[in-house]
Amino acid sequence: MLTLSTGNNAVAAAVRQANPAVVAAYPITPQTEIVEQIANYVTNGSLKSKYIPVESEHSAMAACIGASITGVRTFTATSSHGLLYMHEMVNWAAGARLPIVMANVNRALGPGWNVWAEHTDALQARDTGWLQVYVSTVQEAYDATLMAFRIAEDRRVYLPVMVNLDGFSLSHISQQLEESTVGDFIPPLVLDHKISTDSPAGYGCMTSSADYFRIRYDIERSMRDSVQVIKETEEAFAQTFGRKYSWTEEYRCEDAEILILSMGTLGKEAEVAVDILRNEGVKAGSMRVRWIRPFPELNLGDRELVVIDRNYSFGFGGILASSIRAKTGKVCYNVIAGLGGQEVTYNDIAGFVKTRRIGEEFWFGVDA
Amino acid sequence: MSGTSASEYICKCTSACAGCSSSLILRHVLKAAGPDTVLVVPACCTSVLQGVWPNTSFNIPVYNVAFAAAAAVASGMAAAFESLGRNTNVIAYAGDGGTVDIGIQALSGALERETNFLYICYDNEAYGNTGMQRSGSTPLGARTTTTPGGKIHVKKDLDRIIAAHHLPYMATACSAYPQDLVKKVQKALSIKGPKFMHILAPCPPGWRYDASQTIEVGKMAVKTGIWAMYEREYDTLTLNGPTKAAMIKPAPLQDYLKMQGRFSSMTEEKIKIIRGEIERNLRLLKAEAEATC
Description:
The complex is a heterodimer.
Chain A: E1 2-6, H1 7-18, E2 22-25, H2 32-44, E3 50-53, H3 57-68, E4 74-78, H4 80-85, H5 87-95, E5 101-106, H6 120-123, E6 131-134, H7 138-153, E7 161-166, E8 174-178, E9 202-203, H8 209-241, E10 248-251, E11 258-262, H9 266-279, E12 284-289, E13 291-293, E14 304-309, H10 319-328, E15 333-336, H11 346-354, E16 361-363
Parallel strand pairs in A: 2-3, 2-4, 4-5, 5-7, 6-7, 11-12, 11-14, 14-15, 15-16
Antiparallel strand pairs in A: 1-8, 6-13, 10-12
Chain B: H1 21-33, E1 37-41, H2 45-49, E2 62-64, H3 70-83, E3 89-95, H4 97-101, H5 104-112, E4 117-123, H6 158-163, E5 169-174, H7 178-189, E6 194-200, H8 204-207, H9 214-224, E7 230-233, E8 236-239, H10 241-248, H11 253-258, H12 268-292
Parallel strand pairs in B: 1-2, 1-3, 3-4, 4-6, 5-6
Antiparallel strand pairs in B: 5-7, 7-8
Helix pairs in contact in B: 1-7, 3-5
């Protein structure tokens, strides 16, 4: 079925398809539409979930944890300060190996109050054990949410998945959406370690250093195994629904001499910038990084890199650029752009490429 | 004890301190609740005394969670069991710090949402498992490691905060009165919806008395009226016998304070304030009980 949908409503529509037993959520701009729409679905009976309208994001994740450990499917959504407020439980969810799916609508962090797009919120959670994917279109928000349940609930993974979409520039814009009937694409959840009064066990007890160490290593092992699960899931999705996804979305990269790397909606602007640059004889390509955890193998070759970071790690650098450097040893031109919803057009991005100074960092709109 | 499960759900070899009344309370709670019960435990003495994974001493599923999260985790669990069509008891078992301080927001939310669970606060009047730091539930004048000169604030009135949520069932109890405690747990679990119990849990190392005196200290708390025992079903308040007796002829407060090293730096002025608090509390409870009988 073809409809016109916002990014937020696309996430909610995907959640309705996935049919979680429990949704616990707390509203926050710009995520609010997701939980409002889910509340509508539950009220009109088109979604059978138990909807828990919790009093905080900390409790939203806590309630998902309590529900998930019984072996049922769970979902929540948040943004920005909400994600920060639940950070303790975000860690707990991964440590407890619970396949919770969460949509995070990327938004800047206060102060001052700013509700517009930025990725620093979710990237602060990158070391928690959550898988993280960043989307760029309404359709992708829908598709990634569906796939997130299948990936998280796979026995080889049993880790939570965060689907990230840019505040307003994706959450609130309308695009064409093809809604699919999921059928058996997401198999029923079987949680091997679910809590049960039939076989009493202690969960999250005091744990010795040696055992704790093994448990942490097991998280990393599953994170590595998730690489294959993501690949399989995206291939199965393409076969079932005809829409293809991968670690990155590449645009005119084959013969490119300069790559623009970005995340989220800026990746779509970058594609237009590539066309502009190509018309001017600059052999540019766009590589939009979708998965940040697990971090992908990037096919960068010996091309020049312009990395746009809509985030920042103070005292260190743009997080995507520094991750690429850490993983590949490659130095780039790191453009910090779009913080707090700063407008970044395809012309701006084409300009970054033309004025690139490899090895340097550039704060768009601030640096000369 | 009659009317409870013959099974033991807390095995020997917990790492509880000698004379620990909170493990005694939990033993009775679980025997009253029976085997179809899941315990949700935030950071507190109980997260320590169950032992070190994988050899834990509880013969019941225990879900340990972050300090502030017990009531919210229980909310999710209760909703999930409901969706699975299961009647499993969900009991959050939390200390006073995890209840009156860091966990009160989640607790208030869970009660307001009419979560079908029983929340039990076992109150040893300080952060016990970390060596007795002050909590909002520490009484005026009590020495803790963060109030070395004696606490300068009065104990938070948790029960009236909870009562404001207008619950189908809430009760106070004391580890020294296990039969009363068991009856209250069973009554609570027979009711659908949010239930709350606040149970006084004297703590030998924290309150600084000999481990053999745990029951005596608990009894004296009730006899002096500093700890009142009652049940509240919506607007109906029922005082329990020992508290009615304390209203008529209370044991001397000094006798309770003298039993415990934590009150060694108590001043006359503070004792007067505590007396005033006891009188006010009992007066309000009595008026409420009389108004509803």
